Every structure is written in structure tokens, then in C-alpha cells.
Fold this sequence. Notes:
Layout: H1 2-5, E1 7-12, H2 17-34, E2 37-42, H3 50-57, E3 63-67, H4 83-93, H5 95-108, E4 110-116, H6 124-130, E5 133-138, H7 142-156, H8 192-203, E6 209-212, H9 220-226, E7 236-238, H10 250-260, E8 267-271, H11 280-293, E9 296-301, H12 332-338, E10 342-346, H13 351-355, E11 360-365, H14 369-376, E12 382-384, H15 391-401, E13 405-406, H16 418-429, H17 432-451, H18 457-471
Parallel strand pairs: 1-2, 1-4, 2-3, 4-5, 5-6, 6-7, 8-9, 8-11, 9-10, 11-12, 12-13
Helix pairs in contact: 4-8, 11-16
The structure holds uridine-5'-diphosphate (UDP).
Uridine-5'-diphosphate (UDP) binds next to helix 2, helix 13 and helix 14.
Protein name: Hydroquinone glucosyltransferase
Amino acid sequence: ASNKHKPHIAIFPSPGMGHLIPLAEFAKQLVFSHHFSVTFIVPNFGFPIKSQKSFLDSLPEPITVVYLPPPVISNDLSGSLNPETLVTTGMTRCVPGLRDSLKALTESTRLVALVVDAVGTDAFDLTEELGILRYVFAPFCAMSLSLCFHLSKLDETGIKDYKDLPDPVEIPGCIPIRRTALPGVIKDLNSEFYKLFLYHTKRYYLADGIIINSLIDLEPGAFKVLMEDGSGKPPFYPIGPLLQTGSTTDDGTLCLTWLDEQPRGSVLFVSFGSSGTISQEQLTELALGLEMSEQKFIWVVRIPAKNAANGVYYNAQSNKEEDPFDFLPNGFMERTRARGLGLLVKSWAPQVQILSHGSTGGFISHCGWNSTIESLTHGVPLIAWPLYAEQEMITLMLTQDLKVAFTPKKNENGVVGREEIAKCVRDLIVGEEGKLLRKKTTELKDAAAMATSEHGSSTKSLAQLIQIFENHNVLPLKK
Ligand code: UDP
């Protein structure tokens, strides 16, 4: 009977650690702070993504995980499509399986809401039938969300070509964005993925609300416009920062004990998110640049991208067995180890714990939104090294608006050379510029701590959402 009493929330995530991590933290808050129960209903794309499955399987017990049955991807979808189109189309093909899972949940629990990830809005059709609420969870920043709404407006004015977009694009409440810094998906307005993206974006209006992993004080301009009365947009619930909590691996423990021995603010953390990779040439320059800087570092080394000129690569399917360290320059590991300069980690490090450690003084990041918010909320300034998606836009926000980062200059081949890297690293860790950036990030750190404190803005947003979930009376099936 107690199962029927407390609200149950179903979550329909899209793949990618950058999506699963904040969704899992949201689920943990519902379960541990509010005694809800939660089920992740995971789409199936016909290929296993090992790291994501082990992440989901390790979630604490009150969170249940259901895997939808294969195959949702038939031959017409395999191979030829780019990964984003594959995922977006695959999500839609999972909707019938999702219906069965949701129906089963309505029988065993008090299911009150479905939360879908950015491209899962086709699942909204089911919620009407089941009498439950529907939410979008945006694992990105308010500026990106504003861009979504802005593009759907521009589309209505008849813009059909990238070249017809204004330059810079002026998103209400945000800094102007030069066209070349827009996410890759927008470079071809006639592509299949752009059409799908726009379709989902327009369906955001149908949501009962949009939950977002940001905080008002980080993006006050964007939130002011988004949350304006009378805009016709659904309510927004900024509940960030959602920071990864939980266990760590042996490699992870090693990072933290090594950090314990380093001076305060002396270590640079280098990582390109869960799937970002750089080219072999860039990897070599980065290694030699770090060495030349003579600053301490922890570097999450990944196998370089083979086909990308300068490392724009979405690596969702990779289960490769190669050793990332084999791609480092000769003698680099031995030299840096002998000087006690750096710690190299294969593929994955406990990022949040590293950023929260007092010895960490800077971050070379690809500026995925999670990495960005994790860095800022721990007061760590950045060297912004955008690779794909909305990362160039975030870089603009960090360098021009918030002034908490700078970007290294690429040479004529699109590669950042070793001297430039060494200079940027020194500027950040021991230079005057680094001091200024650090001062700004400390202010943001304080703002983030405030937002999640007892009476803070993110705490209030979450409380409103909880109240709505608790008060929702499920009206049984319409058919
Ligand atoms: N992450 C981590 N260890 C790593 C690499 C990534 O814990 O070695 C986490 C990171 O803390 C963040 C997420 O993975 O929460 C990456 O999300 P982000 O939005 O920064 O980038 P994406 O992977 O989506 O491009």
C-alpha cells in the first residue's frame, strides 16, 4: 500500500553520461530528500553502451532501472545516420515500449509524472492517456534553452538557411553569439537532425514544466526572459547545480590522495568530458605543452580521434580495448613522473571530487555544460577548449560574460601548439590573469552555495516541483 501512497516519477533519458549524471542526481534528491520512488526507463538503440549501463546499474536501490527491449533500430536506421539523428529517431521508436512500462508502473505505484530528456518529447502523447504530468529535463544551460526557443521563433519567420540567420544571433537575455559559435546542428538548417531538433524544441511548449541544471544567479539575463509572464512558455525549474555524488574507483582514490600532497591551488585538471577526443597531433602538443609549463596536472587521457582533423568526435559507441597511454609522446610519462609533475588517468576520473579539492587551481575543459557548472560551483577557473555541440557558445559565456576563462589560440592548422598551451597553463595557475579569473569564480561558487542552501533559489524551485508532484491526482486512463 505504501507504494501507492508516495509519488513515483518515471524518467526517460537519452544516452550520454552528460545526460545520465545530472538526471541521476535529480532522482537521488527525489528519493532521499523527499521519499519519492523513481524508475529510469532506458531506451535501447540496438547496441550496448557499457559505461552507461554500469553507471545505471550502480544507482542506489530506491531507484529502479528498466531497460526497454531491443530492437528499436531497424536496418533503415543503422550505419548511415549520424549519432545524433540515430539517437533522436531511436528515442521515438522506443515510445511503444515505454507505454507498456508506464502502464505497468501505474498498476504498482502512484505514478504522477514522466520526465523526458531533451529529445524525448514524443513520449508526451502517453502522458495524456495515463493522466500523469510531463516534464522536460534540460541537462544544458539557460542560454542553450533560450537558443532553442529563439530558433523555433526564427523558423516561424521563414528562415530556411544558415546564411539567413542574423550574425551575431541575439538571443533575448544572452550575450550576442557569432554565427560560427552556434552548435554544429544549426550549420545546416535542412539536415534531418536539425528538423528533429526543431520538432522537439517546439514540443517543449506542451510540457508541464522544464527542469534545468543551472541556477538563476549564473545566468540571470537568460532566466529573466525565459521566466517572463505571458510568454506562453511552460514554467522553468532551475534546480542546479546537480553534482555527481557517490563511489569512486581505485584510480579515483589515487587522484585524491595525490592531490592531498600538492600545494593549494597548484594543480591543473585536464579533461574533455565523457566523450570528447582530440587528434593525435593535438594530443602530442598538449602533452609537451603541459610538460613545458612545469605546472602540476591530472590529465584524463583518451584514445585520440582517428578521423577528425582537430578532434570533433562524438564517441557514443566506443567500447575499444586500446590503451590511451600508448598514444603519448615517447618518454613523456617517465619524465613527468620522475619530476612528480603529473598524474595520468585512463579514460575516467572522479571529476567532481577533483574540482572540489583545494589543490586544484584550474581546469582545461571542453566546456560541456556539466563540466562548466561543476568547475564554477567549486571556484575553479578554466581554459576553455570547446570541441562540439554548444561548447563554443558556453565558451563565449565564460570568456566574455562571466570572465572566468580564457581560450588558447589555434595555429593555422587548427591545432593549439605546445608553447601556447604552456603559456596559458602558467597564466592560469601562477599568473596575474589567473588571479582575476579566480576571484570571479569564487563569487560564482558562493552564489551556487547560496542557491542550494535552505532558502536558496534552486531549493525553492525544487520544492515547488515536489509540491506539484505531491498534489497531482492521477485521473485513471482515458481509454
Ligand atoms: N566526467 C567524470 N569523469 C571523467 C569525465 C567526465 O566524472 O573523467 C563527468 C563530468 O563530471 C560531467 C560529465 O561526466 O558530469 C560530462 O558532462 P559534460 O556535460 O561536461 O560533457 P559531455 O560528456 O556531455 O560532453
